[in-house]
Amino acid sequence: MGAKRKSPMARGVKLLHDPLRNKGTAFTEAERDVLGLRGLLPPRVTSIATQARRILENFQHKPNDLERYIFLVGLQDRNETLFYRVLVDNITQMMPIVYTPTVGAACLRFGHIWRRPRGLYISINDRGRVREVLEHWPHERVAIIVVTDGERILGLGDLGAYGMGIPIGKLSLYTACAGVPPDQCLPVLLDVGTDNQELLDDPLYTGTLQTRVRGTAYDELVDEFVAEAQRAFPQVLIQFEDFATQHAFDLLHRYRDRFCCFNDDIQGTAAVTLAGLITASRMTEVDLGDQRVVFYGAGAAATGIGDLIVTNMVQEGMAYEEAMNRVWFVDSKGLVVTSREDLPPHKQRYAKDHAFDTDLEAIVRSLQPTALIGVSGQPQTFTEPVVRAMVEWNERPIIFSLSNPTSKSECTAEQAYTWTEGRAIFASGSPFDPVTVGNRTFVPGQSNNAYVFPGIGLGVMAVRARHVTDEMFSAAARALADHATEECIREGCLFPHFMGIRDVSARIATAVAEVAYEQGLARRKRPKDLAAYIKDLMFEPSY
After folding, report:
1. Which residue among 69, 84, 162, 170 is the active-site one?
2. Is 170 assigned a catalytic role?
3. Is pTM, for the whole model, over 0.85?
4. Which domains does the chain have, with CATH numbers?
5. Which residues of 68-85 are buried (b: 16+ CB within 10 A; e: fewer)?
6. What pLDDT sits at residue 5?
């Protein structure tokens, strides 16, 4: 890519319309004179704290979460520094708005609430011109790209171009949670059509009006995008997000040893779930290697978690075959066993020589797992008999309902705690309120990828790692588990409080960077104090 022409520093109204540089009423008197802003702003100069107070007042008066999402997106489009200041200082309250579960509702109506473009749309009709499209992006120092084709958005399915809300939301968390500068983040939507007829019939749909392109044409577009992104932004990290299962595995295997990339649904979900399982093992005093795990759901996320659990059991000294025998899967057709002839490769590895069954309660009673993990996208499938069965042989049964958004959760926190008389160790993909059973209140942990992917990205970016390896995700999981305090554990929460997420992300980034140096993958010379160096890189939203 040729050198981009430098545009002169924006002044006046143009500056007020530049979200990266706009400070609104916080421009000082001197700045207003120098930058041609005199008269374009109210006379009173206000601090970022005062601006944030105004934002919070308006935020709290919005009638519902979708309106709060729209309001925050509008702020991000006007003044990114203020947006991130408010988000960082109120992350526990606002993360469910800018990401799960509200982002799911936003994606469903993305064309209806659309205000201003954000990110890059690369359509199937751009084959052969991807380089030109990338040249239109105004920022040269892109460090992280989050890309989706919109085929499997959360648990909502094919949302086509409406899936752009996911890369936008993920990158907002990269900045808020790990301090990745916003101008180094690029959301990308690969628009290859949609098989969702409701969207094709929607007059406000923003994507290409055709059914999904598959096969060679699809592969050529993705190949061209990945190659041109590497040329346009050398050493960029590409995060694949919400691709359908088969594409998710294919793309990861195709690129992971050639470029710096990872799939958050497979590997990020695995890391945060492994962290929860490690912490749960502390609570039950049952070693990780002694856990027996049944997954309800056998897609990319589920088998990715299984792979990382097996990897860590082996790292702790267990034989590979024994570790594989401790992880079981149930898909939409039933238990994954060797007698089935309908299994794709990612399931075949986990097929067991066992009687086939379709009834989850019967499967649970037969296998007697210590942990039941839902990654199915099928709500209310952890029924009362299934959950109560888990208590029959477990003093503290581990029950993770990880499907997003909340409407897709396999069971609620209240159900898990109530049906087990408060004995369950529970985590979910979307947030649930605290639950009181008897005289004890439990704070359910949210097994949210936002605990790990921002720190992983920061660590990779900090040392310019050539690849993202399984060992990096293991290191991230253990760093996160180490951060779960005794106070959290007493509350029944498997993860640290989210208000400290920037410190958690810095520690994860340091652990990931250490692995990069150990594996010879870092392109940046090791600093004397790696942890301090990484903290110094983190963007602080202030004027």
Report:
1. 170
2. yes
3. yes
4. 98-259 (3.40.50.10380), 267-450 (3.40.50.720), 452-499+508-537 (no CATH)
5. bbbbbbebbbbbbbbbbb
6. 42
